[in-house]
Structure formats: C-alpha cells, structure tokens
Amino acid sequence: MKKLFLFPIFLLGLFFLIPEARGQDPNYSQYFSEPLYFNPAYTGLNTGLRARFSFRDQWPNLPVDFRSYYFSADIGDRNLPGAGGFGIIINSNNEGISFIKNLMIGLAVSVRIPITSTLVTQVGLKASIVQKRLNWDDFVFTDNLSEKYGNVYLSQFTPPDVNSKVFPDFGAGGVLQFANSEGNVSGTVGFAVDHLFKPDESFLSTAVAPLPRKFIGHVDLVLTAAGRSSAGMYTASSEPLKINPGIIYQNQGNKSLIQAGLNLLKFNIYLGGWFKGSFDANAGTAIALLAGYRYSFAENMSIKFMYSYDLQMSGNLQGMGGAHEISLILEFDKLSIFGGGGGGGSFSTPGRSSKSNSALECPSFY
Questions:
Q1: Any residues with CB less than 8 A from the CB of 52 and at least 6 apart, and which?
Q2: pLDDT 10s digits, 279-328
Q3: Among 275, 273, 314, 269, which Cα is nearest to 290's?
Q4: Count of CB atoms within 10 A of residue 281's CB?
Q5: Which of 10, 67, 252, 355 could in theory staple to 214 by disulfide, Cβ–Cβ 3.0 to 4.6 A?
Q6: What is the DSSP annotation of 228-295?
C-alpha cells in the first residue's frame, strides 16, 4: 500500500520537474519534419503540396504518457495573393497518464517577398484554437486511499471550475531563404514567436496561468557536394551527396533548449545526428540519431519516412527510455490551385520544372 501513497507524489514531482509538463509546449527532435509547428513562415515556402505526419513517444519507461501527434498540410502557389501559401496545423499531446489532453488546430498563411533571384523572404502568421481537457476523475489523492482496500474514499480536494478550457492562440515568424549563383549552397535563417498574447490556460476562475511566449531562432544550410544533372528523369544514383547542418534555439518562460547537428542525403537515404542541450539541470543533454528513406513514385511526387531516437546522455532523465519519433512526409511538387505551383527556379532539384525568370525556388533538404 505504500506504493499507492507514493504514486500521486511521484506524479506531482513529474509535473514540477519535467520541462514538457511545466505549462510549456511539447518539443520535436525532427524540427525539419515539422517546420510549420516551429515557424509559420515556412508555409508555402516551396511550391506544391506537402503533408506531414509525426508521432513522438517521450520517456516510454516512465509510468506516464508523454505522447505527441502532429499533422500539417501546406501549399505554395505563386499565383495566390501575396504569392506565398496557406496551410493547416494540428497538434495533440497528453500530459501525465492522460490527465491533461491538449489539442491545437490552426491555420497559417504567408506572404512572399522576393528580394533578388537568389534571395527571398517570407513572413507567416498562425491563428489557432487550443483545447485543454483535464480528466479530474482520474486523479488519485491521498484521502482517496485506504491502507486495506486502496482507492475507495471520496476526496475532499476541490475540483476545478471547468474540466475543459478553450482559447485562441497566435504566432508569427519570418524566414530568409538564400542560395549562391551555382546552386550548390543554399539555406534558411528564421525567427518566430508563438503564444503572442500569452493566453490564459488556467482551469480556475480565481487564478490566471498565462502560457509563456516561445521564441525560436533557427539556421540551416544545404551543401551539395557536386553539380546536378540538368536533363532526364530524376534518379537516386544521379543525386549528389547533400549535407544539411543546422541549429535551432528555443526559449519559453525560464527554459531554453538548443539543438545542433547535421543530416546527410545520398541514394535517397537520410542519416543524421543531433546534439540537444537544455539549460535545465534536470533535463540534461541528449543525442538524437536519425535515419530515413525517400521514395519517388513519380517525377514530382515522393514520400519520405523518418525515424529518430533520443538517447539521454546526462541529467535526471537517464534510463527513462529516451524518445522515439516517426515522421511521414508526402510531397506533390506540381500541385497548385491557381496555376502557380510546380515552379522551381534555377536551383530546383533534378527532374523538376524550371522558370528561369522566377525568383528563387530552392526546395529545402526535406
């Protein structure tokens, strides 16, 4: 029976000690597979339609359920007003043993501002509705418990005013995309702010719990080891080695997280390694190892599968099982609504159509 009394205390400790349970957003290791989640300016950055699905299982060895689910779809069409794109974002995650369930559904739009043929910037906005649900009946307090019979008593703890909280939320960001004239070096630099107006997520009418703003800065490069073949159908053997180093920094409330590393792409195979460091002594550091595969089932259509595993290297979370993350990405490069898709400038990948007089259309590493 001693374990029954200690278990609620263990859960309370998790809520106060684990960064992802402290009124902060869930984090993804494959930030490049969930770009709209981190920065709405990525919406329609490349022409065509992209749909992304992600699942993350955090610390599976713990008796808690830290799982996150992500979906986004965005389309880039240069005949749209603003010449950017629009998309939808859905993110869901559980906290504790499903004690708290969060659901976010948002719309994102972007405006594209060409500067030169090798330099483009985009500004994006996200408007979303967030629902937080509290399963109060699943909580077990010390006065619920009998030493002999277990959970048999009614608790005297006062329940919250509501078990469901719905509120609007907004985010904004910008991305600068660039490439050299030869097309073998390209990259992006971006900055975003989420929870602009710090919405109140408290379940109590007598208390206020503003969701802290999240600040995100990121930089990545795509280095192509050799020149591209300009003719013929795209094949994996004709694709040069691509190296994608990057770094992303996140700050929310009093928590900061930095992630740096690189990915490689050759023969349609992705391999990567990333260092994740937190300024929270309890969280420590981790290494995220990634592997994936891209299959092109048509000239401008492909599907990508990514798997990564977070190996905890230091901190109090060692031995908790790390984190498994799976992503599935569908790309339809020529799909458009108003005839402004399938663009691709002089730096587009082999096998994709080209408009030599268009501003930079440089597909990202993913």
A1: 33, 34, 36, 70, 71, 72, 73, 327, 328, 329, 330
A2: 765 667 889 999 999 998 887 889 999 999 998 887 656 666 678 999 99
A3: 273
A4: 9
A5: 252
A6: PP-SS---GGGPPPEEEEEEEEEEETTEEEEEEEEEEEETTEEEEEEEEEES-TTT-EEEEEEEEEEE
Q: Give the span between the Cα atoms of 318 and 322, in whole angstroms.
A: 8
Q: Which residue has the tokens 């994936």?
A: 292
What is the extent of the structural domain holding 278?
A: 2-332
In sequence order, the 6+-apart residues with CB closer than 8 A to the CB of 81 are none
Indicate the SS3 state at residue 78: coil
Q: How far apart are CA 279 and CA 249, in angstroms?
A: 11
Q: What is the pLDDT of residues 11-60, one digit of tens each?
A: 334 333 333 334 578 889 999 999 999 999 999 998 899 999 999 998 77
The number of distinct structural domains making up the chain is: 1
* First and final C-alpha spacing in the chain: 52
CATH number of the domain where residue 40 is located: 2.40.160.40
